[in-house]
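help with this:

***
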Amino acid sequence: MNASYDKKGAIVVLPPVTGGRLTDKKLRAWLAQSELSRNDQPQELLARVLSELGFDYPEEGLGAMRMWGQTSERPTGWIAAADPVYLEPQMDYLCLHALRRTGVPASEMRTVVDHLQTTLGYDKSVGFIRLGSYGYVSSQKPFATSHVPAYVVDQQEPGEYLPSGEETALHRNVLSEIEMALHEHPINLERIEAGKQPINSLWLWGGGMAPEAKAKPQPPLYSEDALLTGYWYTGKGVAEPWPGSIAECLEQSVAGFVAETPEFADDTALLESLLNELREALRDKRLDSLVLLFRDGVRAEVHRSHGMRVWRRDSSVLA
């Protein structure tokens, strides 16, 4: 897709498909007939979607966009996203654990952010904000941050993802103060007693100002993802919550769409139900093409003409 986008195509973000999750042989054969590929490197979701649309990826302001997606109002100041993480000391390096998938309840995030605001936000130059289970840092003076969210760095040494160059000193100072403030905080003692990893740092990323909204051609978006939604707001596009089915997306859209199924919905029944809906929409000519972005890095580009590839019954990509 390019900036004018395909009015008869859809981009759909789906649960993982590898590891034996897809057992329906007809669906495996259908996907095997498509153009299949897999990227095992961690990928940021907005970047994957924009690449398919042919849109440029924002150079800054992703934290503010995510906040915009949560509140429906454009932030006016400098904002960075602040993801709760556990930095685990290894023999000779640190391993970052993104706590998003294991879950940080809003109540715990409130405790953490309130503590940081009380102990570090007293001079008003740096502030800490919580929206649901998401954290943010505001600053009167912009500073360098990472360009990617914590889930991209999960289970890795974070050094190569940290900011470099100018304006990194303030980032180091803020991060050091955060880690000292969280050291042995009671909420972490409670988490450890409950068998959870402590929140001993925040991953600061996407710092910048939200751009002014400027209309551009965009397919409608159906998603619960705050960053995707916030990006759509920058282009004055239609952004609605995931309606629960592909049929509802087709009903609401007259000219293609982008849909993102809920991030933590990871069961075979849902995956196969969604794939059956998509295959039927292609067969009934309600869509001419599909780009399926599975959360485990698999990509499938499907056209109706691929049904002629009857010799393809399975693919090693799906193994």
